[in-house]
Amino acid sequence: MLKSASGTLFTVLKKSVVPASRITAISVRRAHGGPVESDEEFDCRYEAFFNRKDIDGWEIRKGMSDLCGMDLVPDPKIIKAAMHACRRVNDYALAVRFIEACKDKCGPKVNEIYPYIIQEIKPTLVELGIDTPEELGYDKPELALENVYDV
């Protein structure tokens, strides 16, 4: 009984000596508060990524996948750096697929953006010996046969 009475006395004294603290909630927005990267900084970052001498095929694919996952068309200087990276690891197919992915990223403005990209990267493609998807015939269906009723 003494134990329960001392426990109650302790609780009463504690409440009278220590004032009740108020619990306040502070609203903190945690998204979109970081530094914003400019377009030029973004381009330089990816260009430096693809220009690394020790880059391997997996890292090239990761960088290209990250670029394709964004809502943008890569700048021609990024594409050139990626083409050089593909040549360093000797992956011709990856280079052609990345050009195709860039064409796909142009969306409905493919007739405006894609010719500009090809115009800008063409000297690099010639230097590296890489053909465009159109030169390889990838812009046409593979098994496009004439309709037998039109013969």
TrEMBL record:
Bilayer topology term: Peripheral membrane protein
An annotated GO BP: mitochondrial electron transport, cytochrome c to oxygen
MF annotations from Gene Ontology: metal ion binding
Family: Belongs to the cytochrome c oxidase subunit 5A family.
Localization annotation: Mitochondrion inner membrane
Designated name of the protein: Cytochrome c oxidase subunit 5A, mitochondrial
Function: Component of the cytochrome c oxidase, the last enzyme in the mitochondrial electron transport chain which drives oxidative phosphorylation. The respiratory chain contains 3 multisubunit complexes succinate dehydrogenase (complex II, CII), ubiquinol-cytochrome c oxidoreductase (cytochrome b-c1 complex, complex III, CIII) and cytochrome c oxidase (complex IV, CIV), that cooperate to transfer electrons derived from NADH and succinate to molecular oxygen, creating an electrochemical gradient over the inner membrane that drives transmembrane transport and the ATP synthase.
CDD domains referenced in this protein's UniProt entry, alphabetically: Cyt_c_Oxidase_Va
Pfam assignment, any one: COX5A
Pathway the protein acts in: Energy metabolism; oxidative phosphorylation
Coiled-coil regions listed: none
Cellular component, GO annotation: mitochondrial inner membrane; respiratory chain complex IV
Chief subcellular location: mitochondrion
Domain of life: Eukaryota
Subunit details: Component of the cytochrome c oxidase (complex IV, CIV), a multisubunit enzyme composed of a catalytic core of 3 subunits and several supernumerary subunits. The complex exists as a monomer or a dimer and forms supercomplexes (SCs) in the inner mitochondrial membrane with ubiquinol-cytochrome c oxidoreductase (cytochrome b-c1 complex, complex III, CIII).
